[in-house]
């Protein structure tokens, strides 16, 4: 489909608003007296776009958990999750992420990939995350760089990007949007659910449980949806206003707030007029027309123009901008690859399974937090999903959403860690001219379609160099193993002393099936490997939030055998007298009669330590701004190798 250039805004209020502020002009705005707390937020504007995964958009961005992730899932064949099995290829039988170069191919208008309930679970493959290509096709591995989506990258550099924000459902648009607007998909079948497909629609309003806007209405909190309930691809809403799928909204008549606030035509012109008049409600939901929703068959650049138009409308009234938070997220990944395995509830978790399959979390999707309190190009690595937007509104308004499951409240945060309310920055960032980007998108229609790399032409993804500042996180995770030589039991103990639950997936890297065990940890949890059943050998890894990784490989030595080195290693989070001097402490011990030789390595650093029988040693190891990645080996002849990676919060 070729897109012609279209003018998104008319000559009404929005056009007038934009005329007062040249696109991208940087301007320092005077801020009024503030409390330095969340109460300074008077307005929340929420825009959920369509069908992009995090790696598809931001895997190459500097300073985020993208293609350079050192803690990426290791597959049983020795490769990482980035090397997806593709048995039809002659160059290694795998396919790596490849850039969709929009200067050479029509990457602005990609095809739709499978993103069904069954297809997404197939790619997930019980947590093995190694069936993306059979489930989604080879195009799943395509990604963009800064040259391809400059506006989206500019937003990340100007504000705060979340690199652990997951879709809510391993499935398509509608179930995910139901979580976005109501906190659930009705697993208990009390209101038309469970909904795991795209069957609800404006013409088939088959849902009838309570939504969050209804709770706001009952509490006297103002809200409004800016949406046009038509099918016109230029001006309609692509049926993405999920409230229209609910019977109570479909039945509401003029004069009923459900009708007046959600079911009538409101465009970005109306939004801009409300901004200029300082009459925005407490909560606003924007719903983009199809051509501007960033669906793969629509274009990232058209979506950028829609987002920019909304933001420039806010910037046009400094008094409104300085008290507004704008949340930009995406409903699901469309089928495009992301490498971070999402947290999954343990079997039997209430309200989190349909037909024996976990609902979510689904693949990572982008979330950019745009506000004066989130300026500065930060990254936030706290685990979030679509219920997190509702949780943020809960904190702001005091209106609780009871549909959100207990497990999601444990695992997913409320977005408040994305903000520094004590240090607002109301300077308007310099952003790319999206009118020119629309022209680029139109011209790209003449280019050939995106193609898969030819055999022998695969290259590693190009990741931008550098880092970005990171927000503090509510985790303080650790993990160590103890070996019982008498029983052959190897016990992995996972701990978390942070304020938020940490989720871990524990994998048998070899010998045993690769399917992970799931643990949600608020204090501690234990995973036991019976090495007596595996000839004494153990090989397991635990993956957790913010690049947490533990990997333990070794052999349990029989109690009667003591004339060899029997090494053991544990890691302790060291004291942190100040944030820049964070350390970890390696506790080295040896239960054998022969000296154990430990080799400790991390990027750019190594050390050898000799430990005699029952004379343990401690080695303090420096962190790099809180980050550590340490591997300890010992010359035992049985492959002893322990790896500890993660982050020490200050």
From TrEMBL:
Broad EC category: hydrolase
Signal peptide boundaries: 1-30
Reactions listed under catalytic activity: a 1,2-diacyl-sn-glycero-3-phosphocholine + H2O = phosphocholine + a 1,2-diacyl-sn-glycerol + H(+)
PROSITE patterns xref list: TAT
Molecular function via GO: phosphatidylcholine phospholipase C activity
A single BP term in Gene Ontology: lipid catabolic process
Chief site of localization: secreted
Domain Bacterial phospholipase C C-terminal per the UniProt entry, residue ranges: 469-554, 568-646
NCBIfam families: PC_PLC (TIGR03396)
Family note: Belongs to the bacterial phospholipase C family.
Protein name: phospholipase C
Record organism: Longispora fulva
